[in-house]
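As a warm-up, study this chain.
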Amino acid sequence: MKQFLQKVFRKLGILEYADYIKFILSYFSFLSRNRNFKKNNPNIVLPPHYMLFESFGKMDYASYFEKGKESADDILELLEKHHSLENINLLEWGCGPVRILRHIPEILSSKRSQVFGSDYNPETIKWNKKSFDNLNFSKNDLLPPLEYDNNFFDVIFCISVFTHLDEITELKWFNEIIRVLKPGGIFLLSIHGESSKDRLSEEEKKIFDEKGCVIRSNVTEGKRSFVSYNSEKFMRKTMLKDVQILEFIPGKTNEQDIWIIKK
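Now compare it with the structure written out below.
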């Protein structure tokens, strides 16, 4: 039923309005829990309500903060298997309201590394700059470029960013990431792959199997309701064909695939 309603709302061009109603319902659902979290954690800075929901999908302060820390630990552990995190420039592209990035300076406190975040939402970047003076932020647009020089970053990661772009935009951004990544640098990215296939209609599954890329659009590209799916074959033969693939971690059911590549 959920997939059917999303399909109808998408065709009618009202999915973004439906998503805002979902935000309101989520706000009230977590209201008591969030009040307790703020009471018990008065020094934790939290983003504005809809900014948090748009990036995280639910209005749950505790999950936003605690899962963000878990994700930061997991991502850095994966990256450190392939690249030293000592004295590096690290970027989260598509950082949103720093659910993950806010935790990284503390985790890397002994590494003498510089931590950067970039996002296309001007209000998000404005809030980030105001709230976190130990991080370096820049605003990008929906399309490249980034403001950084060639070969600037040692390590870059993005979580659930390519999942909200169309095929052409995905490829443009991948090439831009490679531009700002140093030779020998590492890029970790996540995508909706085979494990998310059960969300697709039978027609979409056929496209996924044959073409390797399914785009659910009719909403603003970059928004969380704009969704893309990429098969392993598409990733290997199209997006990642000119780079060294260090690791591919297929997602568990309804989790995203993780790819780690080297320039």
